[in-house]
Amino acid sequence: MCGIGGFIGKQPLAADQWQAMLQALRTRGPDAQKATLWDPEFRETNGVATAGLLHARLSIRDPRPVADQPMANAARDIWICFNGEVYGYEADRAALIAQGYPFVTTSDTEFILHAYEAWGDEFVARLRGMFAVVILDLRRRRLVAVRDRLGLKPLLYYQSGEDFAFASTLRALLPYLGRRARIDPAAVDAYLAHRYVPAPLTFAQGVRRLAAGTGLVWEFGTGREPQLFRYWRPTAAAGGFETVLDEAVALRTASDRPVGLFLSGGIDSAVVASSLVRQGYTNITAFTATFPGTRYDEGPQAARMAAALGLTHRMIAVEPRLADDFDRIVADLDEPFADPSALPLWYLARAATEEVKVVLGGDGGDELFAGYKRYGQHLKSRLRGSFTLRLPYGGAPWDKSARWREELGLPWQDAYVLRFSGLSPAVRRYLQPELASVRTVYWRDFPADRPGLEALLAIDFANYLPEYILRKGDLCTMAHGLELRAPLLDHRFVELVTGLAVRERFTRPAKQRLVAGCPVCRTEGLLDAKKRGFSPPIAYWLRGELSARLVGLGARLEATTKGQLCGPRVDTLLAAFLGGFDKLAEPVYQLLVLDAALASLALAA
Predict the structure, then answer these.
(1) Cα(598)–Cα(592) distance, rounded to whole angstroms?
(2) 268 partner at 20 to 30 Å CA-CA among 228, 289, 371, 381?
(3) Which tens digits make up the pLDDT trace of 393-408?
(4) Residues 6 or more apart from 64 whose CB is under 8 A from it?
(5) For the structural domain made of 241-371+458-523, what CATH number should be given?
(6) Strands 32-38 and 51-57
């Protein structure tokens, strides 16, 4: 698990620029930070560099310096920068050794490097796990980049003419861009729409995010744009449910550093915990974020689960010090990201990394087995399909009646996004009166050939899961040098679930097929509790620790966006919240995060 970056161009990059790129990746890889540089003829150099690979390492597999990156083959004409973990590659590694490929480490990085040498671009089919891989092939003067199938690891890139750069985060690319860094107005609107910036957009003009299950090939020196390709979509597969699940969990215990578990009071993490215990992994500590005295405290429920399973359990009381930590949390989330549940996850990761360097989590269960309430809510209106009904409305754009009127004015699939979104199109038009175009949604890959529930799941798999849930998990944990693994999103398990009969996959109550894999918890009645979710006291925070930041908010946002956001209208919305309309707490929080992010990113408008 690491942070990666690099650049290729005709003009040399100043040393302070690439060093700043590497420094921005340091929290993702606190154990080692290294760079390999080349001159215009692609000779390795310590001087003027027109190309370079940068790597900040969190040492999990083979922590010896010999396994550090950037890593090269024996001829030093193929190089790799890799972030993530791949599992179960031992048989392929043995085959490569038999073919004469020399291995000097036990790391997955070296396996991927030789896999590319042996199998070319088909190497990605051999990778099982989470990864952002960049191969610099000096033999063929090409760069190959791939992002894992489900989107657990991030990869951003920039290309203009013969210049190319990439990194794990936007903030690691900004030193490369220098004065070219500009805010993308569409990304501002997309953030307001979704509470984050959906792929392929990023907050900076010209910088793109590689989508999950996608790769690119860039032939440097040609001036041509990168060629994107999609290498995976989930397809139905057969197999033994518990067998594949247990394998996915067991593979993710591979580590030369201590391993833990994030345990909530819900089904998904309980199933992962049960699988660990069933396979004899009982020396793993479970960590739970607790909120004593609140209705969303899952600590007692998680404690009962851990006791029933015989796991060591540590409860972490989350008591945010937002006045002190808010700016750092916003920066650690890289681009503006306004999910309030990121706050407790950030604090939980900070505490867990004091004891372990790897944690398993339960991400993916809701998207695989339709566990969210919003699915059932939105399916009630699926029969209207593309039918729309536009109703004029003259009240405040944030009133509840305005929301449902707007939903009726959108096709059924588009309207689904309003079930989980930031500001509605009407509110965005109000706050950005001079913006030429306010798109309804910025999500992509809406399926035209799926029935109701499967369509919603496909939309979430393409958008919400990789770019919201998994991005949050990656950024909050890597901010503290902690690796988060998601067994339920093993691509072979995903394909198996995709192949389940509808009646077996989509049950009421939800996820009964998963519950069957946790017999101890089921017998003890530990999985019968109502799904809680996490609803932090945003209004309380905004009127308390964060209140000082609300002063002058409208004027600051108007200035930093060069008028894209109208300051007086921001202040009108803020006044409605401060006047007692608490349903505006999340929109106000979203604007506050935008304000803090813009200040620290320092992008020109």
Answers:
(1) 10
(2) 381
(3) 667 888 877 777 888 8
(4) 105
(5) 3.40.50.620
(6) antiparallel
Over residues 346-366, the mean pLDDT reads 96
- Mention every residue, 6+ apart, whose C-beta is less than 8 A from residue 116: 78, 80, 123, 135, 137, 144
Mean pLDDT of 383-399: 79
Dump pLDDT digits (tens) for 274-314.
999 999 999 999 999 988 777 777 888 899 999 999 999 99
Q: In b/e form, how buried is each residue of 540-575, taking b as 16+ CB within 10 angstroms?
A: ebbeebbeebbeebbebbbebbeebbbbebbbebbe
In sequence order, the 6+-apart residues with CB closer than 8 A to the CB of 512 are none
Burial 43-62, CB ≥16 within 10 A → b, else e = eebeeebbbbbbbbbbbbbb
Structure tokens at 40: 């215009």
Is pTM beyond 0.85 here? yes
For residue 291, give Cα distances in angstroms to 297, 363, 475: 5, 20, 22
Whether 533 has a pLDDT exceeding 70, the answer reads: no
Sheet holding 358-360: strands in order across? 312-317, 285-290, 259-262, 358-360, 483-485
Tell me how far the alpha carbon of residue 252 is from its chain's centroid: 18
Give the count of beta carbons closer than 10 Å to the beta carbon of residue 328: 13
The domain ranges of the chain are 2-230, 241-371+458-523, 373-453, 538-601
Amino acid at 64: R
Tokens 């919305």 — which residue? 573
Q: Is the dihedral of CA 173, 175, 177, 180 positive or negative?
A: positive
pLDDT higher than threshold 70 for residue 323: yes
CATH top-level class for 2-230? Answer: alpha beta
Match 């996850």 to its residue by tokens. 345
Structure tokens at 176: 């490369």
